Amino acid sequence: MRAQFVMSEIGVGLRRNLTMTFAVIVSVALSLALFGGSLMMSDQVSTMKGYWYDKVNVSIFLCNKSDAQSDVNCAKGAATEDQKKQIQADLGKMSAIVEKVTYESQDTAYKHYKEQFGNSPLATSLTPDQMQESYRIKLKDPQKYQVIATAFNGRAGVQSVQDQRSILDNLFQLLNLMNTAALFLMALMLFVALLLIINTVRVSAFSRRRETGIMRLVGASGFYIQAPFIMEAAVAGLIGGGLACVFLVLGRYFTIDHGMALSSKLTLINFIGWDSVLTKLPLILATSVLMPSLAAFFALRKYLKV
């Protein structure tokens, strides 16, 4: 097969169906950009989980004097020194799952509250004796929260046992839901792109039916006739894939590093690095070539019988 002939046929096909080719390029670019963005979002959620789950604590909040009047768990009054010592002793026996235990007094809790919510109107009316003493427990395995909850919930002097991981789980569920929605939209746009590719190939083949008929009469093979159409779809897809890669790189650059500069504004979030972006680009480019090529191949076989 002469490469010059194939390349010339590709150019002819792209020029004849310029509008439809443009539509294919845009739909492929957007769908693959969403695909790459979804993969990056999945990496971001995994990175955040690993970062935050390693830092979350289980907190055992102790009863204070004000809780005795308003909380049924503290009906017997504020936690006594003996109850605190017993809690510390029991936590010491759980070294298999407990990595570190930090005691937070009422004064310390009040100081932390003032640092975080000093501008709140409620902060001016609070006093240290209204704050709760607590034990902040760092677990070796965050999944073992239920062991702590079972051991200390309902015990005299304990107001509640809270797992900070449950708060993060709600956030991650929201992020995963958004990621699923992006994947659904990507699948829809990918389907539209496939329909456009198939239609473009069929129109291109119909407009050159005379040339292909002559080629069949002189004994050209089916693949020789199909090759220019397949290559047209592959070139259009590759251009779309290249644009998708540009969108992903620019998106990472302007949202995290510059422009919005989220990495400097949201210092508590551990954002994905450039390695997560660059590893997705070869997959996107390969998909942008294979998907249109296969769609064109089967479209020609099924509809045109060349």
**SS content category:** alpha+beta
Average pLDDT, all residues: 79
Helix content estimate = 55-70%
Our Rg estimate from Cα atoms comes to 31 Å
Distance between the termini: 17 Å
Tell the overall outline. Answer: elongated
Descriptive account of the structure:
The chain is an alpha+beta fold and about 300 residues long. Helix content is about 70%, strand content about 10%. The chain is built from 12 helices and 4 strands; from the N terminus they run ααβααβαβαβαααααα. It has helices spanning about 5-15, 20-55, 65-70, 80-90, 105-115, 145-150, 165-205, 210-215, 220-255, 260-265, 275-280, 280-305, and strands at about 60, 100-105, 135-140, 160-165. Strands 2-3-1-4 form a 4-stranded antiparallel sheet. α1 (about 5-15) packs across α9, α2 packs across α12 (about 280-305) and α9 packs antiparallel against α12. The radius of gyration is 31 Å and the shape is elongated.
Name the features:
single chain, 306 residues, alpha+beta, 4-stranded antiparallel beta sheet, 68% helix
What's the short story on this structure?
This protein has 306 residues and is of the alpha+beta class.
Set down the secondary structure blueprint.
Blueprint: H1 3-16, H2 18-53, E1 58-62, H3 67-70, H4 81-92, E2 98-104, H5 106-117, E3 134-139, H6 145-152, E4 158-163, H7 164-207, H8 209-217, H9 222-257, H10 262-265, H11 274-278, H12 281-304
Antiparallel strand pairs: 1-3, 1-4, 2-3
